[in-house]
């Protein structure tokens, strides 16, 4: 391996007396979960309630050919990019349990800070989307029984934020989710099966649908570019080292098992509901599929409530790096029910989620946030940085063709990140003028 700015003695200092790879200090549990549990964490992320939006935010702007090919290609390149990061987890003789730790070890302090900033923005916007989703699910449930429009979307977003905060107070770490991952899987199956069955029924009974890509001119082009960012958003967490930190040894082998599960079995529900939803409603599919489906009120209510509850659990996964940072910095260890620890979680996590909720209510444009997240953070973190880190760390062991391949990836995804960011900002600007702030969508 290349030196990468550190000498061999420094590498050896990161091993214990038995020669095992050591991990940095953290207040949260590490090396405690099986690969199967970690696989369910990853699968929970990609089959969260966000899947109810992909028919409208990916398939509608891209059409059948672009959408199907795009989702399959995004699956393959996402598996590849995540595998690169997973294989660097013990690079240099130590475990890198945080994305910023890995970048800082390879490049230096400036990369640690930049990666942490990118990751924070990435996870903040993902969580903003989850709160919008949860609020939308609550509103949809409300309208099934009371169609008086007295309660507006911002009110439901506020309720969703409060429930997310209450859950965060009681679950101290990512590993502590435990049985909640099982509940999350059951909740995901509920709304995915209901959305699939009702969409299938509607599609079989519907007249011919319009599958043409809507819009014209610049607006159509920007929508297509924005949808390309949604493609990579669908599969990537931006926090793979943090998730890999929880897995038992051997960490690389077990993480690869989890990734193979995620990108084979784990993507099937996503494909199923995304393609069926678009087939059933064509280019009139909304950004929240359950707004399109027809069926018994109680069935639709179950789908919306399970989507709400699953969003609460999934948000906790993507907020965990911030929680781990704060808990470690301020020495929050020991029993989760200690008055000191509980008070700290209430103040810090409550403050973070309050601000998250405010932004969600202020700009409740789910599809736009998905595009912006993919553009300014998923592309750089998952594709640009992953390829360049692997190229730097393994340069001496790669042929010129392999190095060229990584550089092509870096250049291509850099261009995609730039144009997708411009597109996403434009979409948010247009929607803000169309719907106004705190819109009731």
Automatic annotation (TrEMBL):
<feature type="domain" description="Amino acid transporter transmembrane">
    <location>
        <begin position="33"/>
        <end position="425"/>
    </location>
</feature>
<protein>
    <submittedName>
        <fullName>Proline transporter 1</fullName>
    </submittedName>
</protein>
<keyword id="KW-1133">Transmembrane helix</keyword>
<keyword id="KW-1003">Cell membrane</keyword>
<feature type="transmembrane region" description="Helical">
    <location>
        <begin position="404"/>
        <end position="428"/>
    </location>
</feature>
<keyword id="KW-0029">Amino-acid transport</keyword>
<keyword id="KW-0927">Auxin signaling pathway</keyword>
<feature type="transmembrane region" description="Helical">
    <location>
        <begin position="218"/>
        <end position="238"/>
    </location>
</feature>
<dbReference type="Pfam" id="PF01490">
    <property type="entry name" value="Aa_trans"/>
</dbReference>
<dbReference type="GO" id="GO:0005886">
    <property type="term" value="C:plasma membrane"/>
</dbReference>
<feature type="transmembrane region" description="Helical">
    <location>
        <begin position="153"/>
        <end position="171"/>
    </location>
</feature>
<comment type="function">
    <text>Carrier protein involved in proton-driven auxin influx. Mediates the formation of auxin gradient from developing leaves (site of auxin biosynthesis) to tips by contributing to the loading of auxin in vascular tissues and facilitating acropetal (base to tip) auxin transport within inner tissues of the root apex, and basipetal (tip to base) auxin transport within outer tissues of the root apex. May be involved in lateral roots and nodules formation.</text>
</comment>
<keyword id="KW-0812">Transmembrane</keyword>
<dbReference type="GO" id="GO:0012505">
    <property type="term" value="C:endomembrane system"/>
</dbReference>
<keyword id="KW-0472">Membrane</keyword>
<feature type="transmembrane region" description="Helical">
    <location>
        <begin position="346"/>
        <end position="366"/>
    </location>
</feature>
<feature type="region of interest" description="Disordered">
    <location>
        <begin position="1"/>
        <end position="23"/>
    </location>
</feature>
<feature type="transmembrane region" description="Helical">
    <location>
        <begin position="35"/>
        <end position="52"/>
    </location>
</feature>
<feature type="transmembrane region" description="Helical">
    <location>
        <begin position="259"/>
        <end position="281"/>
    </location>
</feature>
<feature type="transmembrane region" description="Helical">
    <location>
        <begin position="64"/>
        <end position="89"/>
    </location>
</feature>
<keyword id="KW-0813">Transport</keyword>
<dbReference type="InterPro" id="IPR013057">
    <property type="entry name" value="AA_transpt_TM"/>
</dbReference>
<dbReference type="GO" id="GO:0006865">
    <property type="term" value="P:amino acid transport"/>
</dbReference>
<comment type="similarity">
    <text>Belongs to the amino acid/polyamine transporter 2 family. Amino acid/auxin permease (AAAP) (TC 2.A.18.1) subfamily.</text>
</comment>
<feature type="transmembrane region" description="Helical">
    <location>
        <begin position="110"/>
        <end position="133"/>
    </location>
</feature>
<dbReference type="GO" id="GO:0015293">
    <property type="term" value="F:symporter activity"/>
</dbReference>
<feature type="transmembrane region" description="Helical">
    <location>
        <begin position="301"/>
        <end position="325"/>
    </location>
</feature>
<dbReference type="GO" id="GO:0009734">
    <property type="term" value="P:auxin-activated signaling pathway"/>
</dbReference>
<feature type="transmembrane region" description="Helical">
    <location>
        <begin position="372"/>
        <end position="392"/>
    </location>
</feature>
<feature type="transmembrane region" description="Helical">
    <location>
        <begin position="178"/>
        <end position="198"/>
    </location>
</feature>
<feature type="compositionally biased region" description="Basic and acidic residues">
    <location>
        <begin position="7"/>
        <end position="19"/>
    </location>
</feature>
<keyword id="KW-0769">Symport</keyword>
